Amino acid sequence: MVALLAARFREPETLILFGVALAALGGAMTALIFNLSPSPITLAEVLSWLQGSVANRDWSDLAWAAPPMALGAGLCLYAAAGLRMLALGDETAALSGLPMARLRVAAVAGAALLTGASVAMAGVIGFVGLAAPHMVRGAVSDDPTRTLAPSALAGAILLTLADLVARVIPSETELRLGVVTALFGAPLFALIAWRAARSWRA
Fold first, then answer.
1. Rounded CA gap, 131 and 193, in Å?
2. Which of 5, 34, 106, 150 could be a cystine partner for 79, CB 3.0 to 4.6 Å?
3. Closest CA relative to residue 110, chosen from 83, 138, 142
4. At 11, is the secondary structure helix, strand, or coil?
5. What span, in angstroms and rounded, lies between the C-alpha atoms of 21 and 8?
6. What does the domain layout of the chain look like in residue ranges?
7. How many CA atoms lie within 13 A of 92 on its CB side?
């Protein structure tokens, strides 16, 4: 649905608003599962997924997620040249001679596949995908093409560190990974946004 919307609307604000609407719809459907499920086991599984965790995951889970991830990574690599042009502005991208509409759809579809496969496997783990690209962007001269692989590596490192923190913090029950990433990721992302706002004013 997001890829179809990206093909129809060029304005990033419109795409963001549609994304918010789709996220709200997904949240409503999750709440509907809570409301209608007669099984407490199902409710516990859904709650665990909403809090995010990589516990009890094995190679079979990765095998299910690998095909859509591989397809998503391929689409992102295919759209890399278009991402570089879009970073220079819509007018420059339109004059580049590249099939920007196709590349835009490929980038959105690739990101959706990568995100969807990850969330399906590990649950909702927030702020890793937002913080990782900003952490490596300065080292790659703000080039979106060069940001893809370092962002994936930085995200994996952040996820591993957050999982270690969740396991070593003393508590009666082990903290969920998604809770830890939200607690540490939200202030970090706020700091990144503040620095970005300062640079834009300058």
1. 10
2. 106
3. 83
4. coil
5. 16
6. 124-202
7. 9
Residue 199 pLDDT greater than 90, yes or no: no
Q: Which amino acid is present at 175?
A: L
Dist CA 51 CA 91 (whole Å) = 42
In this predicted structure, the answer to whether residue 69 has a pLDDT above a threshold of 80 is yes
Distance CA 29, CA 25 (A): 6
Q: Is the pLDDT of residue 70 over 90?
A: yes
Q: Can you tell me the distance from the alpha carbon of 162 to that of 179, in angstroms, rounded to the nearest whole number?
A: 9
**Burial (CB count within 10 angstroms: exposed 0-12, middle 13-18, buried 19+), residue 172:** exposed
First to last CA, the chain: 38
pLDDT for 189 equals: 75
Q: For residue 68, what pLDDT band results from cuts at 50, 70 and 90?
A: very high
Using CA atoms, how far residue 179 sits from 127, 137, 148, 169, 186, in Å, is 11, 25, 26, 12, 11
Tokens representing residue 7 in the block: 């093909």
pLDDT score, position 117: 92
What confidence score (pLDDT) does residue 66 get? 93
Q: Identify which of 132, 93, 123 has the alpha carbon closest to the alpha carbon of residue 12.
A: 93
Residue type, 144: P
